[in-house]
Design goal:
Layout (H helix, E strand, L loop, with lengths): L15 H11 L10 E3 L5 E3 L2 H15 L12 E2 L1 H8 L3 H9 L6 E3 L2 E5 H28 L6
Antiparallel strand pairs: 1-2, 3-5, 4-5
């Protein structure tokens, strides 16, 4: 079986009832005395490791919300276009961030490469800063009487 890296997966409308059932089954805490199992087409049962159980729960949660899922190893190295796509920014803007040393990168020949984990660190920092600024702006608007609840 070939594993597709960075291939987005989405659930079809016909899969949604099954995903809903899966969501209910997976919305519990993993217990060593009651381990979930994967049952293969031939009936073979395999105990799911805790890590796989929680990853599966995350996948089902996001697919239920209609989101596409891509599985990327943390140590994966991305091209500038792949990194820009993940941040939902243009490639030239991403290159500017790299040149300003806001995101670590390596050069392979003349090509920049970004570690997925470094990109996610930047994204988390950016999102935290945005949230903080939005909260400040909301507070200022309330103090000035410009914001009705």
């Amino acid at each position: 079986m070939k594993v597709l890296e960075r291939e987005p997966f989405t659930a079809s409308n016909s899969e949604r009832p099954i995903l809903k059932r899966m969501e209910g089954v997976l919305n519990v805490e993993y217990k060593e005395n009651c381990v979930p199992k994967l049952v293969g087409p031939s009936g073979e049962e395999i105990r799911l490791p805790r890590s796989v159980f929680y990853v599966l729960r995350q996948i089902v949660f996001h697919m239920m919300q209609g989101k596409a899922i891509t599985i990327v190893p943390v140590d994966q190295v991305l091209t500038t276009q792949e990194a820009a796509d993940l941040l939902n920014v243009s490639r030239p803007y991403l290159v500017k961030l790299l040149e300003e040393n806001k995101i670590p990168f390596n050069k392979v020949g003349s090509h920049r490469r970004i570690r997925f984990s470094d990109l996610m660190d930047y994204k988390k920092s950016r999102d935290t800063e945005r949230s903080k600024r939005l909260t400040e702006l909301t507070q200022m608007s309330q103090e000035l009487g410009l914001y009705d609840l």
